[in-house]
Amino acid sequence: MTPTALIAEDEPLLSASLQAELAETWPELRIVASVGDGAQALQQALQLKPALCFLDIRMPGMSGLEVAQALAEDWPEDGTPFPLLVFITAYDQYAVQAFAAQAVDYLLKPVEPERLAQCCVRLQRQLAAREAPQAMQQAVDQLRALLGSAAPTFAAPKLEVIQAGVGATVHFVPLDEVIYFEAADKYVRVVTADKEHLIRLSLRELLPQLDETKFWQIHRGTVVQARMVTSATRDEAGKTHLSLRGRPEKLTASRLYAHLFKPM
Amino acid sequence: MYLSHSTFTWQHVLRHGLQVAVFNTLLWGLSLMANGTEHWDVELVYNQAIGLSIWSIIEAGRILLCEPGHAWPSWSRALPLIAGAIVVGWIVGSQVGNLYCGCSNWTFLSQSPRRLRSAIAFTIGASTVATYYFYSRGKALADREKLAAAERDATLARLSLLQSQLEPHMLFNTLANLRVLIAMDPARAQAMLDRLIAFLRATLTASRSASHSLAAEFERLDDYLELMSVRMGSRLSTQLTLPDELRDLPVPPLLLQPLVENAVKHGLEPKVEGGHIDVTAERHDGLLALSVRDSGLGLGAAESNGPGTQFGLRQVRERLHALYGERARFSIDALPDGGTLARITLPLDPPAP
Questions:
Q1: Regarding beta strands A180-184 and A222-225, do their DSSP bridges make them parallel or antiparallel, or are they unpaired?
Q2: Judging by beta carbons within 10 Å of its beta carbon (0-12, 13-18, 19+), is residue B219 exposed, middle or buried?
Q3: Of B233, B197, B220, B214, which Cα lies nearest the Cα of B289?
Q4: Rounded to two decimals, what is the model's pTM?
Q5: Could you give the 3-state DSSP secondary structure of residue B286?
Q6: Rounded to whole angstroms, how far apart are CA atoms B96 and B41?
Q7: Which of B172, B180, B274 sits opposite A13 (nearest CB)?
Q8: Residue-range domains of chain B with CATH
Q9: Less CB within 10 Å around the terminal CB: N or C of chain A?
């Protein structure tokens, strides 16, 4: 079977050149998509299910790491092996250290032909050896470690209340009462037992301001207050469903965060 | 407070005390040579007790009375302190000596005005010499520290300026593009390399020259934007507007650079569809008005990208303030359709040197 690949790189010359150099070092590899932003990368990868994804880290919209996280969360359970990921970066010290520590493939720009050839050999070996369930589990473990260490975190002051504006009024919601936060486009939904508010903030901006021991991220778009969870149930497909104190709906923890809900 | 550590530590106090004791012993030796060695032990006790009493009062007063960041109080406080210390220290030290020998030095001294005069002169003289010694040493030390701190601050400022301008991510991506162009389109690669060289040269020399012409400023911006448009392709469009009559006006070098970089880095580069950047110079009410307008993600997005943006803006603000004081204005605003507008107004005449 011909191996397939997706390239996500926002700089047109660099994208064209990577494609050309891959054609030279790995002629059998077929590039099924070449995209310039993170959202397209995610959508195309889920649709075309390539064997490899080359992801630039800094891209407009979503970063390469965010694409990888979303892919790992949304990848179907139908046995299609999870793609091998290769991150590309010009200069991200933290990320590079984390990649090296997790044995994740990465390329530094400008890409040296020799380094690319080594990388291709490694990928070919991994493609030949891999089996779908292990590939998924390995990717999940690596990404979990990467997400924990790759992003430099700014020590932000912790919030006590959420100030949510509605028209000319600002509602004060004590953080203790929040059951969960959910990302909704450019907003975050703040859900309490009896109310919902929208705040103009991304989840990425909100996260550093929350106490991580109390508020657990369970999906790229969901953060739940741990003491508001009454039970967690794992279904056959491996998804973890959470029941909540004071809310009828259930939340789903992605496979990246399922390990948080093991029994003691 | 960069001098505070020289103001008070027990180690310093102990060292000063030992120096005073050595000084007292030397004086004692001199007085033995002059007056004979009959009561050498009594002389030594008086000498050390009075000397150390005076010193400890001055030392304590110095530490308590001085302003934070200084080693000594002002003269108006130091002189009464020293005078008071001599009187009180002499009385206290004498009591210690009286206890040791079981006699009274006051009775001894008051028998002869000559003895009394020479004892007073001796105490005042010795105290003045010792105080002057500590004062001049402390001052020299403080001056040296102040100089070192100023040098360190200046070096740090220069380094962070350079670091903000020579952003490694920008540099390596530009080099990666250049590497591709060399094989694909050597003429374009050469043109890009020339731009990069001009950009690097301007960045490295900007901190050393006081001003250049507005035309030169716009050329440097053009270099940077040209490099970025090779990288971003059709996602970036730019327009620079500089009327001929303003070309020769002097401006601080790379004043607009951080604003243009912010617009690209936080406004346009992270925006999926890219956008437009406009840099304009115009004469307005007898002032020079410079503006950088972009159609990027806007101020909110830039702030969430961490402290980098703030640093660039602070740097512009501080430079303007240092060069023009209240005569320059700087503002940065969100545009209603989502972009950002940064504006600087400067007097038309050159900044005061």
A1: antiparallel
A2: middle
A3: B214
A4: 0.72
A5: coil
A6: 13
A7: B180
A8: 4-163 (no CATH), 168-347 (3.30.565.10)
A9: C
3-state secondary structure chain A: CCCEEEEECCCHHHHHHHHHHHHHHCCCCEEEEEECCHHHHHHHHHHHCCCEEEEECCCCCCCHHHHHHHHHHHCCCCCCCCCEEEEEECCCHHHHHHHHHHCCEEEECCCCHHHHHHHHHHHHHHHHHCCHHHHHHHHHHHHHHHHHHCCCCCCCCCCCEEEEEECCEEEEEEHHHCCEEEEECCEEEEECCCCEEEECCCHHHHHHHCCCCCEEEEECCEEEEHHHEEEEEECCCCCEEEEECCEEEEEEECCCCHHHHCCC
When the candidates are 3.20.20.100, 2.40.50.1020, 1.10.10.10, 2.60.120.10, the CATH number that belongs to A161-261 is: 2.40.50.1020
- Asked whether residue B304 carries a pLDDT value surpassing 80, the answer given is no
B169–A202 CB contact, under 8 Å: no
- Residues from chain A contacting residue B338 (CB–CB below 8 Å): none
The residue among B178, B272, B303, B304 with the most chain A CBs within 10 A of its CB, best to mutate, is: B272
ipTM over 0.95: no
A89-103, B173-187, B246-260: lowest mean pLDDT where? A89-103
Amino acid, res. B271: K
Alpha carbons A37 and B294: distance in angstroms, whole number: 20
Nearest-angstrom CA–CA distance, B56 and B251: 58
Spell out a b/e string for A25-42, using b for 16 or more CB atoms within 10 Å of the CB, else e: ebeebebbbbbbbbbbbb
Residue A58 phi, psi dihedral angles, 5° rounding: -90, 105
What angle is formed at CA B278 by the lines to CA B275 and CA B284, rounded to 5 degrees? Answer: 155
Contacts of A13 in chain B (CB under 8 A): 177, 180-181, 184, 230-231, 233
Around Cβ A120, how many Cβ atoms within 10 Å? 18
Given a cut of 80, whether residue B114 has pLDDT beyond it is yes
Collapsing DSSP to helix, strand or coil, B33 comes out as helix
Query: Over 90: is that where the pLDDT of B275 sits?
Result: yes
- Is the distance from CB of B255 to CB of B217 less than 8 angstroms? yes
Q: Residue B75, Cα to own-chain centre: how many angstroms?
A: 27
Report helix, strand or coil for B288.
strand
Q: B181 contacts in A (CB within 8 Å)?
A: 13
pLDDT one-digit tens code per residue, B230-251: 999 999 999 999 999 999 999 9
- Where in chain A are all domains bearing CATH 3.40.50.2300? 4-149
Quick check: A72 and A42 in contact, CB under 8 A? no
CB pairs under 8 A between A and B: 65
The CATH number of the domain covering residues in A4-149: 3.40.50.2300
**DSSP class of B134:** H
Is the Cβ–Cβ distance between A179 and A194 less than 8 Å? no
Quote the pLDDT of residue B208: 67
